[in-house]
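hey can u check if this looks right to u? its 233 residues, i copy pasted from the old doc so theres a chance i mangled smth
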Amino acid sequence: MTHVTAHDLEHLAAWDTPTICNALEMVVPDRRATGFTVRPMVCADPGLKPIVGWARTATIRCSVPSEAPAEQQQRGRIAYYEYVADGARPAVAVIQDVDPNPGFGAFWGEVNTAVHKGLGVQGVVTNGSIRDLDACAPGFQLLAGMVGPSHAYVHVVETGCPVDVYGMRVEHDAIIHADRHGAVVIPPEAVKELPAAVDLLTRREAVILACARQPEFDIAQLRRAMADARDIH
């Protein structure tokens, strides 16, 4: 099994998520059409750098009350936080709202962003809703399905389980890369190969970009630039 370190993940935060997706197409070609979010998402702070970490997964519901007694609900909430606090860092929360109408209530706001940031979580990717945008923990990234005003009957249903957020299937401890564009799962075996792949793609793209930005640019020059780019290894 590939050993991935926190330093490896920190290195990947230097590039945006589309760049990581491009590099994954080279490193693991069979992942070209899977493993990433496929719907637009609300980004609380587009200016934040990408977040990269091991997934802490859970499902929530908001539109109906939990059927568990109040004391059991409290134990369940603490158990969720214990789960989030355990394991490798950095972490990214990946939460699926399993309501028929996801986003009816918000799990994420001032309190939960502060708690999760304090527990070493960099941010969240969710199909649910977020709120308290002006009061959320600074530097904590939120990618969500929508913004809403109320938490309604929000409660955790299951923790550490497989989830699906807009087509991105995620299991506990999967490696997540996310920014304002969306999120992608990085296979552990690809992590150490991605920097070299990004470098190669960047050098190839640089040839085409430099050509396209010239005043005399035309289709003949584009053909030459594309051929030159293909020769870069």
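The chain has a mean pLDDT of 96.
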